[in-house]
Specification:
With 504 residues, the chain is α/β, with parallel strands linked by helices. The chain is built from 16 helices and 14 strands.
Length: 504
């Protein structure tokens, strides 16, 4: 509307005769589409955890964000779980996934919600429906209330009025909107003085770090007790394989090595079958040997390059010749194709334990990600079934799991300097920790994750400004979604539960 008004003003200046013509023509009218009232679906439930029956209220609802005139700009859909008892000092945890452009169903139905969809722990595919949906014994309801949030453009959340989404699609824009949602939620539910935690997965960790600044910064700040980073990406230089950026190759090397170990391709005998020693050495090799070599670039002699390639081959399980042809820069996508090429398999990106079969074996990259299509249909079915059948959520629009629009329109700029830069939210996280002496951070990360590798997250959290003694590191024998494996899902829940108990 502002654009329309400006255009009309310019027309008046440019065309003096416009006023006379206007008298003879009817005034054009523009009517805004009616925006319905936000919907709420509330119900009461009981979950038995560790022999204790927990009664709780579920509220699946729309929350409207509004502009300075009070007009709705966006609807954010969330599902809240609040234990009976009106305990205002009970912790509340705000939970979201990543993308950007992903709804929160993964952590909701896989990790922490009261219901859980069952997936094979051995990294095999889920197959066809029906899928098993059961009470989740890993739910966090015993220690915290939970609010699962779908950012604008995901789930049932959407822009409203004249907004097309760009107002919410960006590093700052997204964090601002979620911060506003949190302010509204704690106000409406009387939870300003409750211990508060953020839990994000993948890009959700980027969002969580940004939220520490958006929530705690300024005189209207909201204090946080803890930030839970699951499969973190904080400094995007560690994940961007742009020409000339060698940092990403260092960040991915230990994860590639761990995947090679899992599939029996690394030289296990060299480390006497000790995985922990192997991974520790892979980290050290990346920083102490590989980093200087990559910095040397083409000043490294062929003989020196060949020696390093031989060393890397023992870690990665691919030929030294292939590594040398790549000039020691092992791209994870090509690695996923090369590692098991002779056996006729590819390996997963989200989880390198998964194996896939391509139509032919000569390409440089896999056809698809077997750790994606191996489980996603079960989550989509489970979430839609749960919302519509059990919670009675009734919208005349589909639930958007992961769409291209928010991500394709994402504003990756963090400031107005105009200079190109990698997104790096680590300084915001560090600032929050320095200004709040009780704010703690937990990193939960899988060994076999080639989407957000564990060493990349470690590199970010080792930067100056982070308070190291308040960072907790937890590792899992799985990939990006460690809760796909039953044992690691329980470990994740136990680790997060202990973190929340210690931080309230």
């Amino acid at each position: 509307m502002r654009a329309l008004f400006l255009a009309m003003c310019l027309a008046l200046v440019a065309a003096p005769g416009f006023a006379d013509e206007k008298a003879d023509k009817p005034e054009p009218t523009t009517e805004k589409a009616d925006i319905p009232e936000p919907l709420t679906f509330a119900s009461d439930h009981t979950l038995k955890l560790n022999g204790t029956a927990i009664k709780y209220k579920t509220v699946a609802s729309e929350t409207y964000l509004r502009d300075e005139k009070g007009e709705p700009t966006a609807s954010i859909f969330s599902v809240s779980y609040v234990r009976d008892g009106e305990d205002r000092t009970r912790p509340v945890t705000f939970i979201f996934n990543g993308g950007p452009g992903s709804a929160s169903l993964w952590l909701h139905m896989g990790a922490f919600g009261p219901k859980q969809v069952v997936t094979p722990s051995d990294a095999s595919g889920v197959g066809a429906p029906p899928y098993t949906i059961r009470d989740n014994q890993n739910s966090l309801l015993d220690v915290t209330d939970m609010v699962f949030i779908d950012p604008v453009g995901t789930g049932y959340s959407r822009p409203l009025g004249d907004n097309d989404g760009k107002e919410f699609y960006g590093v700052n824009e997204d964090a601002d909107s979620i911060a506003e949602f949190i302010r509204i939620w704690i106000t409406e539910n009387g939870r300003w003085n409750s211990p508060k935690f953020l839990a994000g997965e993948s890009y959700g960790t980027t969002r969580a770090a940004a939220l520490t600044e958006k929530l705690q910064g300024g005189w209207n700040g909201i204090g946080l007790n803890g930030v839970i980073l699951i499969s973190a990406i904080l400094d995007f230089q560690t994940g961007e394989f742009a020409p000339g950026n060698d940092t990403a190759h260092l960040a991915y090397f230990p994860s590639e090595a761990a995947i090679a170990w899992y599939h029996g391709k690394a030289d296990k005998a060299k480390w006497n079958g000790d995985f922990n020693a192997f991974v520790s050495d892979a980290r050290a090799y990346a920083t102490d040997t590989l980093a200087p070599a990559l910095i040397r670039g083409n000043t490294l002699s062929p003989a020196q390059e060949a020696t390093i390639a031989e060393d890397m081959s023992a870690y990665l399980g691919v030929s030294a010749e292939w590594i040398q042809q790549a000039h020691l820069r092992v791209d994870p996508t090509r690695f996923r194709k090369e590692l098991l090429r002779r056996e006729g398999y590819t390996v997963g990106r989200f989880d390198g334990r998964y194996k896939g079969v391509d139509p032919e074996g000569t390409s440089d990259s896999p056809e698809n990600d077997p750790s994606g299509y191996g489980m996603d249909v079960a989550y989509v079915a489970a979430l839609n079934d749960y919302l519509t059948r059990e919670l009675k959520v009734d919208f005349n629009r589909p639930y958007k799991v992961l769409t291209g629009e928010p991500g394709s329109k994402w504003n990756w700029s963090m400031n107005d300097s105009g200079w190109p830069e990698y997104v790096n939210v680590t300084p915001w996280l560090g600032k929050g920790m320095r200004e709040n002496p009780e704010l703690k951070v937990m990193l939960a990360t899988g060994w076999y994750d080639l989407a957000t590798p564990f060493f990349g997250a470690e590199m970010a959290l080792h930067k100056n400004g982070i308070v190291p003694e308040r960072v907790q590191y937890d590792y899992y024998d799985a990939g990006h979604m460690m809760y796909l494996a039953e044992q690691d899902g329980k470990k994740l829940s136990d680790d997060v539960r202990a973190f929340i108990k210690a931080g309230q």
